[in-house]
Amino acid sequence: MWKSIRLGASRRWQEGVAFGLAVLGAIWLLTEVGTRSSAGLDHWLDEHGTPYLGFAIFCALVGFLWAIYEPRKVAFDIPLTSTRLTLKYGNLFKEDADWLIGVNEFFDSRIGDVVAKGSIHGQVICDYFGGDEAKFRTQVTPALQPFTGTTIPRTVGETTRYEIGTTAVLDRGDKHIYLVALSRTDVSTNKAQSSIPELWTALSAALCKVHERGNGQPLALPLLGNGRASINLPPQHLLRLVVLAIVDYAKTAQLPNSVSILLHEDCFSVLDLTEIRRDWSTK
């Protein structure tokens, strides 16, 4: 809470002051009307001026805090659709929803040398598949059979490269995990990178697969492109781009009624969710 107040005050203190003064003005106006129409109220205020002043200041302070508070969650309806998009800080893997996750174009499974354990890709293998690479491959390999890949010589990792946007759908009980090829890998260093066009292509293709296979299940995804295979964009612009891609697709094909973007706590000081909600809520 204090973190939200400090950050909000640094960003919107002028709005907070204006709203706090507006609250004071409203209280003053109501008081003037009341005292003009009731001698009893006028007499009561003469006897209780100090508590009344304290109450007015308290209300103004509450108004100030309400106006500046930096939310940890915002939501808005995508115009002309039935989809509600939520942006919030939290753990993707605690979401009771289908998960959409970006991986490299090899759909690698080796933790450490190729797939960072701390990445979302790595966490899927470690947390959901118990770190068992073979178990991960028993689902990924059949899911990739409909797609044609290209064999690339590598000393470590998988050797079949798939096009950006290729999406493997894994079963997770009655839910799905959508793994979409988002980044390209340097086979000599195993360093993965992506770009804005590749992000748009990958997200559009993955959402198409969600439309085909999702059956209306809620969908959750991280801030794609902000991980180890990062795109050279500040998080605020990257989030705008991901939101725009989702909104753009939702206007051409039906998405689930609930879509959530889960944000990492490290982004809290550099993302302004209020601004993004304001932009889309007025459209």
UniProtKB/TrEMBL annotation:
**Domain Thoeris protein ThsA Macro intervals:** 86-264
State the UniProt keywords alphabetically.
Membrane, Transmembrane, Transmembrane helix
InterPro entries tied to this protein: ThsA_Macro
Q: Which residues cross the membrane?
A: 12-31, 51-69
* The protein, known as: Thoeris protein ThsA Macro domain-containing protein
Protein species of origin: Sphingomonas rosea
Biological classification of the source: Bacteria, Pseudomonadati, Pseudomonadota, Alphaproteobacteria, Sphingomonadales
